[in-house]
Amino acid sequence: MSQEFDVVVIGAGPGGYIAAIRAAQLGFKTACIDAYKGPDGQPALGGTCLNVGCIPSKALLQSSEHFHALNHGFAEHGINVKGASFDPAQMVARKDGIVQKLTAGVAFLFKKNKIANLHGLGSLKGRADEKWQIEVRDGDKVETVSASHVIVATGSRPRPLPGVEIDNKTVLDNTGALAMAATPKRLGVIGAGVIGLEMGSVWARLGSEVTILEALPTFLGAADAQIAREALRTLTKDTGLNIQTGVKIGNIKTGKTVTVEYEKDGKSESLTVDKLIVAIGRVPNTDGLGAEAVNLQVDERGFIVVDDSCHTNLPNVWAIGDVVRGPMLAHKAMEEGVAVAERIAGQKPHVDFGSIPWVIYTSPEIAWVGKTEEQLKAAGIAYKKGTAPFAPNGRALGMGQAQGTVKILADAETDRILGMHVIGPMASELVTEGVLSLEFKAASEDIARIVHAHPSLSEVVHEAALACDKRALHG
């Protein structure tokens, strides 16, 4: 007889494991199915984010920033180091240790919340007696469990580049980019998105000559154009990235090296590198889910179709995270997971896509929430803006990280904050003030009237809010 559950979650990434925990907290008998295995061949929870995405990339970024500071930033503090060396293998080993700690932490949370942890590939097989039948296949081992509600949280995988084989030795996806045990002399990256910029930054700081090829004509088109221009200057001048936009990729020849033929401004060009990272986005992961067999609606791009409540076209089947519409962000998936569990319990939670922050963990960091200036212009919304640089900020100067800008956009009539955009130190933390402002419908004057600690980086946010009314105190 198969095991029966109130809620079964398929996928143990950020959205899935959080959905399972919240469902268990609400009193549901819960199981989570996940097929991922780590490099040691053992099951590892946490999905792409914990294993080969958000978390390991930040560990490598921190290591590379330390090494860069040692060689280029410590001298002005009176700290002089000669003959500093770098061990990429140790950096990767440290990253692996962090990943193992966090994935083990998810397993502990499952045990604490009495969530059944089922390893294998989960697929929908149909419905009987108002219970969904889900097959769990782990090699030759197959079992079937039943559930009143199913939450699909199968995430995404790297978008392939047609005609190019990812071997994770010479041509790499995000998994291979996080596991290089030596610094390549020449590194090529296709794609100037989050993954491309972060991985390019890591290896540039460790000595690689990094060239990034981007198909789109503009750099960071999703960001506010003013912030994107400053980011481009900083990443090329200070980090040393060679960023080429408006590129049309042609043939890619692999061997001991990789040669990428491409066209830019109507001219044929080529790039020869020792390693090539392909980072051209991600696609929803529905392979093996059994969507066709149960008539689960999937759109032309492969996303599971859901309504505003994350409910699919099937009764009691929900979907969240990268596998549905909206930004492919771990924190978006987490909030959807919590909301779905609460909806199953009869509650009425709400997730506002308009106040979800975006972050790129380069140095300096880039973060934003809400509308860009370009979006407001296109929508015909009258607005005012305030900007403030980090350059005169005492805390930023003390940290040796006084590059960047905070920009706040507010409604011209009501003063309600419509967007906040940051490039600078700890932008990932500072942007939360913008998130709160959007959620609570704050005005720029509200931030301007709030006392911010001195000295702190947050004073630059305060200054940008003051600048919305042309009363900045330090600019």
TrEMBL record:
<dbReference type="InterPro" id="IPR006258">
    <property type="entry name" value="Lipoamide_DH"/>
</dbReference>
<keyword id="KW-0285">Flavoprotein</keyword>
<dbReference type="InterPro" id="IPR012999">
    <property type="entry name" value="Pyr_OxRdtase_I_AS"/>
</dbReference>
<dbReference type="InterPro" id="IPR016156">
    <property type="entry name" value="FAD/NAD-linked_Rdtase_dimer_sf"/>
</dbReference>
<keyword id="KW-0560">Oxidoreductase</keyword>
<dbReference type="Pfam" id="PF07992">
    <property type="entry name" value="Pyr_redox_2"/>
</dbReference>
<feature type="binding site">
    <location>
        <begin position="154"/>
        <end position="156"/>
    </location>
    <ligand>
        <name>FAD</name>
    </ligand>
</feature>
<keyword id="KW-1015">Disulfide bond</keyword>
<protein>
    <recommendedName>
        <fullName>Dihydrolipoyl dehydrogenase</fullName>
        <ecNumber>1.8.1.4</ecNumber>
    </recommendedName>
</protein>
<keyword id="KW-0547">Nucleotide-binding</keyword>
<feature type="domain" description="FAD/NAD(P)-binding">
    <location>
        <begin position="5"/>
        <end position="337"/>
    </location>
</feature>
<dbReference type="GO" id="GO:0004148">
    <property type="term" value="F:dihydrolipoyl dehydrogenase (NADH) activity"/>
</dbReference>
<keyword id="KW-0520">NAD</keyword>
<dbReference type="InterPro" id="IPR001100">
    <property type="entry name" value="Pyr_nuc-diS_OxRdtase"/>
</dbReference>
<feature type="binding site">
    <location>
        <position position="122"/>
    </location>
    <ligand>
        <name>FAD</name>
    </ligand>
</feature>
<feature type="binding site">
    <location>
        <position position="322"/>
    </location>
    <ligand>
        <name>FAD</name>
    </ligand>
</feature>
<feature type="binding site">
    <location>
        <position position="281"/>
    </location>
    <ligand>
        <name>NAD(+)</name>
    </ligand>
</feature>
<dbReference type="InterPro" id="IPR004099">
    <property type="entry name" value="Pyr_nucl-diS_OxRdtase_dimer"/>
</dbReference>
<dbReference type="GO" id="GO:0050660">
    <property type="term" value="F:flavin adenine dinucleotide binding"/>
</dbReference>
<feature type="binding site">
    <location>
        <position position="214"/>
    </location>
    <ligand>
        <name>NAD(+)</name>
    </ligand>
</feature>
<dbReference type="InterPro" id="IPR036188">
    <property type="entry name" value="FAD/NAD-bd_sf"/>
</dbReference>
<dbReference type="GO" id="GO:0005737">
    <property type="term" value="C:cytoplasm"/>
</dbReference>
<keyword id="KW-0676">Redox-active center</keyword>
<dbReference type="InterPro" id="IPR050151">
    <property type="entry name" value="Class-I_Pyr_Nuc-Dis_Oxidored"/>
</dbReference>
<feature type="active site" description="Proton acceptor">
    <location>
        <position position="454"/>
    </location>
</feature>
<comment type="similarity">
    <text>Belongs to the class-I pyridine nucleotide-disulfide oxidoreductase family.</text>
</comment>
<dbReference type="GO" id="GO:0006103">
    <property type="term" value="P:2-oxoglutarate metabolic process"/>
</dbReference>
<keyword id="KW-0274">FAD</keyword>
<dbReference type="Pfam" id="PF02852">
    <property type="entry name" value="Pyr_redox_dim"/>
</dbReference>
<feature type="binding site">
    <location>
        <begin position="328"/>
        <end position="331"/>
    </location>
    <ligand>
        <name>FAD</name>
    </ligand>
</feature>
<keyword id="KW-0963">Cytoplasm</keyword>
<feature type="binding site">
    <location>
        <position position="58"/>
    </location>
    <ligand>
        <name>FAD</name>
    </ligand>
</feature>
<feature type="disulfide bond" description="Redox-active">
    <location>
        <begin position="49"/>
        <end position="54"/>
    </location>
</feature>
<feature type="binding site">
    <location>
        <begin position="191"/>
        <end position="198"/>
    </location>
    <ligand>
        <name>NAD(+)</name>
    </ligand>
</feature>
<dbReference type="InterPro" id="IPR023753">
    <property type="entry name" value="FAD/NAD-binding_dom"/>
</dbReference>
<feature type="domain" description="Pyridine nucleotide-disulphide oxidoreductase dimerisation">
    <location>
        <begin position="356"/>
        <end position="465"/>
    </location>
</feature>
